[in-house]
Every structure is written in structure tokens, then in C-alpha cells.
Amino acid sequence: MNKNTHSNPKKEEFWLDLDNAAKIFPAVRSSEHTTVFRISAVLKQTIRISSLLKAVSELEKRFPYFRVSLRRGFFWYYLESAKQHFITEPDHSRLCRAFDKSERNSLLFRVLAHRDHISVEFSHILTDGAGAYYFLKLLLINYFRNLGIKVDNKEDDQADEPFRREESEDAYNRYFQREIPSAIKLTKAFHIPFTLKSKPRFDVLSAILPLHEIRQKAGEKKVSITEYLVAVYLYVLQEIYEDQPQHSFARKRKTLRIQVPVNLRKIYPSGTLRNFSLFILPEMDLQLGHYNFDEVIKLVYHKMQLETDRKLINKIISRNVGIERKIYVRSIPLFLKSMILHMKYYSEGVDQYSGVVTNLGKVELPAEISDYIDYFVFIPPPPNKKLKINCSVIGFNDKLALSFGNISNSRKLEQKFLRFLSGQGIGVKLIPNR
Amino acid sequence: MKKICPNCKVELDDHMENCPLCNYSVKESPESDAGSNDTVSAGMGDDFISGYERLSTVQRRKLFWELSGIILFSGIMVTLIIDLVTSKGITWSKYTITACLVLFANFTLLTFWRHRLFILFGGSLMFSSLLLLLLDLYNLKIGWSIKLGIPILLSFYIVVFVLTMLVRSAKRKGLNVLAYFFMAIGIFSLCIEGSISEYLLKEIRLSWSLILLVSMIPIAAILSFIHYRLNKGIELNRFFHI
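Predict the joint structure of the above. Result:
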């Protein structure tokens, strides 16, 4: 599994290994825990459907490594070129719904259209937020070109080939270094004790915040927007923890820890459009007492600065890739491997953190089309049963969209979070998801 | 005025009759009245479609049933008249008349109850058994039909019924259908030999049919393996990559 060169997306028929991060998802995905996320561009005008359909079909040659379906091998899952063309669907169904497992040619992403919302939903098996965002960006450029707007996209227009081979690589393997000690195992973290909703569980609450206001607030504390929002999340989790009865089971775990995905393309040079992100885990230990917001900010800031160090990231890559390279792991048949991965995911992985905050960053589009788009929304994949709630963020112009995915019966976390922000003088406006 | 799909709320081109996303006919939509003249003119090409192509599948099936009825009843009348003229009575024509009537009964079942497998198979078995019984009866005594013909017919219908159910329930059809078919041949041959030996020797003795069945098992197994594990176009290095 240390090589990903047995694939050639230029050929009509090709296949790819799953990248290191994607390997877990087929084992843990279900109709509820779909591992599918969504990015939507909300236009200022109604979508002209013929232009969108043309734009989608134009992207087939540009993204051959997304025209794949998931197949079961004897030892590993793999991606195989599919006959199914890129299609656009009406956006009437559930958000981030699962992709069909039984259909041989079914793709792992979909383009959706409704009124003024152009959305893409990707399975995490295929790519991460950065890959999906790049796809949506080119889709929007093509769409507006088809509407007759002249758009400069220097990066793609000047390329000799429709895509760079590097885009389909497993960059984790490229940057794997042997003989680096593995990361230390973490203590179990607090989980919010809310009850689960009945199926279908996944629900999303999205809000728009003025970007300049939140930037100003983060600036006052001398932290980034991500660090500021992670601190708010931890602070709110602390409130929920303290709301629990003194001797309740929920209070047994006293560590609050947030999983914050980091786009590794910013640390390691790679043009891959498959998964290439890792997590850092800012935390606070409630055994040490109550933290005020400034203390939380300080903790988060230093932890984030420390853990985005390249050497420490190397250590996590080394642990993750090192495991999949071990011969005894490789030789386990897939059905057993999937069972083990499923158990490990719930018994170890999910136990380590209390929440997820994903910031996709600020969307940068060619100036010619920016005026036609109102804002972007990034909806996280449905959280697992232990986590229950997760959060994602995306910015565009002066609008920062905050989305909470929730499978529980309570909106307490979102209420506390948004009230905290409005208490800081930041305007919060709830928005529909489509 | 813009033409908007009332379901997806997206803007359609003027020439579009249906929303390409949800297939909603915009002619039905009051919001798209402004575009309705265009959509009517876009559908003028329909006039060139022949009458047959305009029929629905059910109508086409009914047409075939009517045609087969006309042909079979014409055949009955023609053979009956020839028999009456040449033999001064009903002699050989009773065979063709019976066969045509049973054939028509089967066509009727296929036309109207093709999705109701129990009615289709049960009815067809009943009519075909009746055919064998009548053919036997025309020789003035009932002999082979009950002891040999109907048991073989019954086993044939059971095997075909099970085969149909299996094929229908298969999510993906390919070499697995061939595997089912080979197994069905093996099992049916077992039934044939069993019925013949019971009829002739008064005991069930199996020989050639067992060999046939045993030979079919590995063929069906290989076909199933190829179908379910090594699908069309798959390469072993993909499947077994480690």
C-alpha cells in the first residue's frame, strides 16, 4: 500500500487505492453516519439550469479521479473508474445523504441545484473539504462562463493537460517518514450527554456572521478566527459540562478536546485533490478547575501553534501511514479489517475528542464572478453517535457561514454558542440551508 | 418573463418542456405560462411518430394478444374446416385445436398476469397439464400423461418458477443468471430421469442426470465467483492488491 502508482487517470479504465485518511470511512459509513459533507454557493440570481448542466459535464475530463466508484477488494477497498457521468440532481432530499453502496457505477459525489443554491456533496472517501471546494470553484467558473461572463482562471487555463497527475496522489504516503516515533495515546474526552433524535437524525442549523466583526474580535485577542471559534466551542462545552449534575456519568470524563482539521497542503507542498488533512486537538482539563474565556483562548492559541509544527505533524502521519504499511495489517482480509476498523473508530478514535470545528477558510474566486455570489455554506458530515454535534465554517467576502450538524434532541450547544457570539457584539443571522 | 421550474426553482431555457433536474413538465406549471407557446411548438415533432410508437407497453402487449388470438382462432377454423371436409368429422384437427386453445390460454396469462407469478405459473401449469391429459385421452385411455407427462411438466414449472424468482431478486444480473440456468438444467434433468425411471421401472434410479448435475455445479460456482467477486472488467491485481 506504500505506492499509489498503479493508477493512471488519463486512461479510460483505471483504479486507485484509497488514501490513508479515506480507509476508515467505508468501514464506518452508514445511512445515518454517511461521511458525506456539502459545500453550497448561494448566488444572487436564480440558477440558469442549462448553463449549470453544461458546466458539470465540462468538468468530467478535468476530474477523472472523481469519476470513480468504490469497490471491495480482498484486502482493501479501492476506487475504480465508473461509467456513470457527472450528473446534477434536484436538491429536494435530505442533506448529506449516503451514496448508494449497491450500485456498481454510482459515484461518490453529487452536484445539486435549487433556486440560487449550487451545492456539491462529496463522500470523505473521495476527498476532503479543500478538494471539494476546488471542484466547486471550477464548476462556478465554468457556469458563469457559460452564462457569457468572461472569467480569467490563469491556473487552469494555462495548463497543458486538463489536470495534473499529482492531483490524484495519496500525499500522506508521499510525506511518510520511517523511524519517527508514533504519537502518544490520549485520554478519553467528555461527550455531550444529549439524547439521540429518531431517524433520520441529521439536522443542520446555519448562521451568517459579518466577517469583519468576528475578525475584529479575534484580533482583539490576537488569535485567528479558527482559534477564536474553537475557544468559543470549548467554553460552551465547559458550560454544558458544568450544567450536568455533580455525580452524573457524563462528568466522569473531565477533558474537553476539539478536533480541528488542518489542511496539510498549506504545510506540505502538494496539489492533491484527495484527502490530505490531519487533526490537531486543542484541549482543556477540567480537573484543574473552571476556565474563563481568556484562559481558554490562551490554551487554544498555544496548542494550535504547537501542534501545527511540521515535525509534530510528521509524527501523526508516521503513526497513521505506518499502521497501514504493516504486513500483518495488510494481510487481514477486508471483512475482518472493516470490523476491526469499525470497533477501533468507536472505541478509540471518537473517544478522544468532544467536538469538531472545521474551518474551510475564506473562499477566493476570480473577481469577475465574486459579485454574482452572495455567500458560501459548508455543512459538515453527520456526526457520529458519541459526538452528536459538529461545526463547520466557511467565509466569503464579508460573510462567514457557521453550520452545526446535529443528531441529538437538543439545540442547547448551538444556542449557547450563538448567544455567546451575539453577546460579544457580533451580528448573528440564521439562514435556511437551501 | 423567466421560465422557472416550480419544484427546483431554477431558471429553464425557453425551449425546455421539462425541467432537466426533476423532469417536471413546465406546461403544467402556471408559473411558466409565458413560455407555454414555445413548448407547444417544440413538441410538433411528435406528429411524425407512428401510431405504434405512441402506444404504451400495456397497449402494445394487448395488441399482440389480440393478434395472436386472431391467428390462433383462424388456425383452428381452417384446420377444423379442412378436417370436416376431408374426413367428414373431427379427427386429427382435435390435436391442433387443443394445442391452439392451450397456447391462447398461455398468451392470455402472459398478457394480463405477467407480474403475478403464482397466477401465471399456476394457470399455465393447469392449461398445459390439461393439454397433455386431452392428448392422452384422445387415445381413449389415460396412461402416460398422469404418470409421466404431468410430473415432468410440474417439475419443469417448479424449476422455472424458482429460476424466475432468483433472477428477479438478483440485484445485478450477469453471469449469475447463467449460473442459475446451469443449475436449473441439472435439477430438471434429475427430475426427468427420476420420472422416467419411476414410470418404466417403478423405482427412482438416477445415473446420467447425476453426472450432469455434478458437472453443472463447478461451472455454476465459477460463474458465480466471477460475477460476485471478480466483476466484469476487473483485474486480479486490483482485487487482491495488498
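Residues 225-243 of chain A form the longest helix (19 residues).
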